[in-house]
Amino acid sequence: MTDDWNDYADGWDDNSDVKLYATQAFAALDAHVDMRGKNWQSSRILDFGCGTGLLTEKIAPHVMEVIAVDTSDKMIAILKEKNLCNVRAVHGDVLTGDIRDVGDWFSDFDLICASSVCGFLPDYSGAVTALAGLLRRGGQFVQWDWQSSGNDGFGLTEPQMRESLKAAHLSSIRVEQVFEIEADAQAMPVLMGVGVRHTD
């Protein structure tokens, strides 16, 4: 597997597993926060590591604005071609501050989503802490990542996820397996982690 996500951009939206992951993630999000309800219509969402925007597309109709950010310029280019009216697609790295022209709009998010991203980061716990700082008080951080068996170093374990959310000073923490994806004749479980920023 290449480390350059640009290499996956062209066929990303045609990958049935990738589409299923986004569909299942949105279903889990909707079950958790009632995303289709009226309470989200004035909300601002950050989709961190948005890829080509498969999850962004599902969230956007229910909120005021989605800021969709990815380090892959090719993924962002594909998202921009979709011309979603309330989506601002941004190429850059949130964690290093390498995002141009962010202005005052890059903070106070009502919800930050990270779908199949955090488990690939070199400093997962540090990333969650940085992202939590972009939430408004009462804002929620929600992530989905492959559940690690603990043997191969791939994915995240429940304790890892729980401890990182706690270290980011999030509360009302919940970590659970929410769905599975069948790949290579085996079931790959996906964890959802949730935390709320209650303090400034």
Automatic annotation (TrEMBL):
GO biological process terms held by the UniProt record: methylation
Highest taxon, organism lineage: Bacteria
Any one Pfam family match given in the protein's UniProt record, by short name: Methyltransf_11
InterPro entries: Methyltransf_11 (IPR013216), SAM-dependent_MTases_sf (IPR029063)
EC number: 2.1.-.-
Boundaries of every Methyltransferase type domain copy: 46-142
Keywords: Methyltransferase, Transferase
Enzyme kind, highest EC tier: transferase
GO molecular function: S-adenosylmethionine-dependent methyltransferase activity
SUPFAM superfamilies from the UniProt entry: S-adenosyl-L-methionine-dependent methyltransferases
Protein name: Class I SAM-dependent methyltransferase
UniProt organism field: Parasedimentitalea psychrophila
